[in-house]
């Protein structure tokens, strides 16, 4: 594909975000053009001064011409000030729109997208690439157009002054244009590589910070540091390659205008000697060439920035164009009022994108209103996948899931997730206060009493009140300032504050010590009261909380019943229990005999 066409195609992506800013940006461009044209007139006035008052001694005319130069300089400065005043606010608003649109789209994208993308790559696109676009629209695009116009107009003025001198300047500046075209294509490839490497580096830094405890525990900080230094060196080499391309380009575009001035002096001297040129014309031509130097020299840099911005747009579009496959239906159905919480899996199949086989195959399961069902199975059998289908983190490949008889794909996501709440195996908390973390479990405004009620249900109010600032205590990134049991109970409080009809718990007792497990188990007994719950169980203590147990094996539900019934009838269940910790459940030893 033609690189130039590809560049323009990527830049067209900006139109929806900058449509509201088009009038201020056009006005800013006209101001910049006016400033450049004001500067172009000054050499013509200089010619009049030298060939007029300086030659004839007419002081009266000289005063007016000097005042004219002063007025042109003032107009140039004023128009440049106006350009910044017009372009700055319009571009920052568009930048904010781009970031907001990208962030909102990231929230809409399914988990299958996030499973495949590194967080550092997403971060670099939402921060660095959008900032690159804003700089391009604020400065580069305006002056790329303005300076090109200035060069064309300047050469026209030069030919008006003297066709010979105009030809000399054209011959000297033409190689600059060729160099710009040659180097811009090379620069684009390197610029894209640098942006991708920046994203990789951001991912490494983020993972190192989030996993600092693991790195310290296993003494792997030095290993990851070496990996980071390799990535940093690759980025440095790419940066040096960019510098090398720009250095060659700048050397070309700086030398050639200098040669143009030398050629003008030589041609002008002969012209003055034979009477075909005046001194004023020569000085005006030299002044004009000097004035055109920056527009000519800047073209290389502007074209480099053009390609950098096109690469940034391309990277932005890789996320912005990703399909949001889990979406609201065209005509959402209402949920029954009140919601009873009956959950049905009917012939559910699930296959991840690019996977060779189904993770879930013909799953049939019914959860009656208010019933707690424990889901047990070996590692990799599809338990987490099954629980992820209920709030539509993924959509089923075949079959359907219904809530109170309505296919969940026919419900608005907001309505569905207002009735289905989730607590994950890992209690993910945010860099916010306790109050804000708990209130995140519902889209509705919450009172302090509602937050406290959720904490009481999750058996968390006592330890929260003991924190330095109570509900308003910042808990730090990932909630690492709290114990595992405290984090898990806050996650449970967050799950129940919205009073959901269905609760999905993915192994809430995993990785807890015996004392902490007892605390969380006590909280779970209160949380599960009165709601329909699907609980992934890896421990007998979790099984003990359930009314019934469903056994998942190789993507299928192979048995359902109470713990006692399955011990008597299901060999798969007995085998699974034999791999769990040995402890009594309902007064019976759970290990297989």
TrEMBL record:
> What are the protein's UniProt keywords?
ATP-binding, Membrane, Nucleotide-binding, Transmembrane, Transmembrane helix
Annotated GO molecular function terms are: ATP binding
List, alphabetically, the Gene3D superfamilies matched: ABC transporter type 1, transmembrane domain, P-loop containing nucleotide triphosphate hydrolases
What residue ranges are annotated as transmembrane? Answer: 21-42, 62-82, 141-159, 165-183, 245-270
Q: Where is the ABC transmembrane type-1 domain?
A: 26-308
| InterPro entries linked | AAA+_ATPase, ABC1_TM_dom, ABC1_TM_sf, ABC_transporter-like_ATP-bd, ABC_transporter-like_CS, P-loop_NTPase, Type_1_exporter
Lineage: superkingdom? Bacteria
Q: What is its main location?
A: membrane
Topology within the bilayer:
Multi-pass membrane protein
Specify whether Transmembrane is a keyword of the entry.
yes
Q: Name one Pfam family in it.
A: ABC_membrane
The record's subcellular locations are:
Cell membrane
| Every ABC transporter domain range | 343-579
Q: Does the keyword NAD apply?
A: no
| PANTHER family linked to this entry | ATP-BINDING CASSETTE SUB-FAMILY B MEMBER 10, MITOCHONDRIAL, ATP-DEPENDENT PERMEASE MDL1, MITOCHONDRIAL
Q: What is this protein called?
A: ABC transporter ATP-binding protein
Q: Which organism is it from?
A: Allokutzneria oryzae
């Amino acid at each position: 594909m033609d690189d130039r066409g590809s560049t323009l195609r990527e830049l067209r992506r900006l139109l929806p975000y900058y449509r509201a800013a088009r009038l201020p940006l056009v006005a800013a461009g006209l101001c910049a053009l006016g400033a450049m044209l004001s500067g172009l007139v000054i050499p013509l006035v200089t010619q009049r001064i030298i060939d007029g008052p300086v030659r004839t001694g007419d002081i009266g005319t000289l005063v007016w011409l000097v005042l004219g130069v002063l007025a042109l300089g003032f107009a140039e400065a004023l128009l440049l000030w106006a350009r910044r005043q017009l372009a700055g606010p319009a571009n920052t608003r568009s930048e904010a729109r781009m970031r907001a649109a990208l962030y909102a789209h990231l929230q809409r994208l399914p988990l299958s997208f996030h499973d495949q993308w590194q967080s550092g790559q997403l971060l670099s696109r939402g921060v660095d690439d959008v900032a690159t676009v804003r700089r391009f629209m604020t400065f580069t695009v305006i002056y790329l157009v303005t300076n090109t116009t200035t060069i064309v107009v300047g050469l026209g003025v030069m030919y008006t002054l003297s066709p010979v001198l105009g030809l000399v300047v054209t011959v000297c500046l033409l190689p600059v244009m060729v160099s710009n075209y040659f180097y811009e294509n090379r620069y684009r490839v390197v610029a894209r590589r640098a942006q991708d490497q920046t994203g990789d580096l951001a991912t490494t830094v983020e993972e190192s910070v989030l996993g600092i405890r693991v790195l310290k525990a296993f003494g792997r900080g030095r290993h990851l540091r070496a990996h980071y230094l390799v990535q940093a060196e690759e980025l440095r080499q790419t940066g040096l390659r960019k510098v090398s391309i720009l250095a060659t380009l700048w050397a070309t575009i700086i030398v050639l205008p200098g040669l143009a001035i030398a050629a003008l002096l030589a041609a002008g001297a002969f012209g003055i000697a034979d009477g075909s040129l005046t001194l004023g014309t020569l000085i005006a031509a030299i002044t004009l060439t000097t004035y055109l130097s920056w527009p000519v020299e800047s073209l290389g840099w502007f074209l480099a920035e053009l390609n950098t911005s096109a690469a940034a747009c391309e990277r932005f579009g890789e996320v912005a164009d990703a399909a949001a496959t889990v979406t609201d239906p065209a005509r959402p159905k209402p949920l029954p009022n009140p919601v009873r919480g009956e959950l049905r899996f009917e012939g559910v199949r699930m296959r991840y994108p690019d996977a060779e086989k189904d993770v879930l195959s013909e799953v049939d399961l019914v959860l009656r209103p208010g019933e707690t069902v424990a889901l047990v199975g070996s590692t990799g059998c599809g338990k987490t996948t099954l629980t992820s289908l209920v709030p539509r983190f993924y959509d089923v490949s075949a079959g359907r899931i219904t809530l109170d008889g309505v296919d969940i794909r026919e419900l608005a996501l907001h309505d569905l997730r207002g009735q289905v709440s989730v607590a994950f195996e890992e209690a993910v908390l945010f860099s916010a206060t306790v109050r804000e973390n708990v209130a995140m479990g519902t889209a509705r405004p919450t009172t302090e009493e509602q937050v406290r009620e959720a904490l009481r249900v999750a058996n968390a109010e006592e330890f929260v009140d003991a924190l330095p600032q109570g509900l308003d205590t910042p808990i730090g990134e990932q909630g690492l300032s709290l114990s595992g049991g405290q984090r898990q109970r806050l996650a449970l409080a967050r799950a129940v504050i919205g009073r959901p009809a269905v609760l999905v718990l993915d192994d809430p007792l995993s990785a807890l010590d015996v004392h902490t497990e007892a605390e969380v188990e006590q909280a779970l007994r209160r949380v599960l009261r009165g709601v329909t719950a699907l609980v992934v169980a890896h421990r007998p203590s979790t099984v003990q909380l359930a009314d019934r147990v469903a056994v998942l094996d190789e993507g299928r539900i192979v048995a359902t019943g109470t713990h006692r019934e399955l011990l008597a009838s299901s060999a798969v269940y007995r085998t699974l229990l034999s791999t769990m910790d040995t402890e009594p459940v309902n007064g019976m030893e759970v290990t297989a005999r």
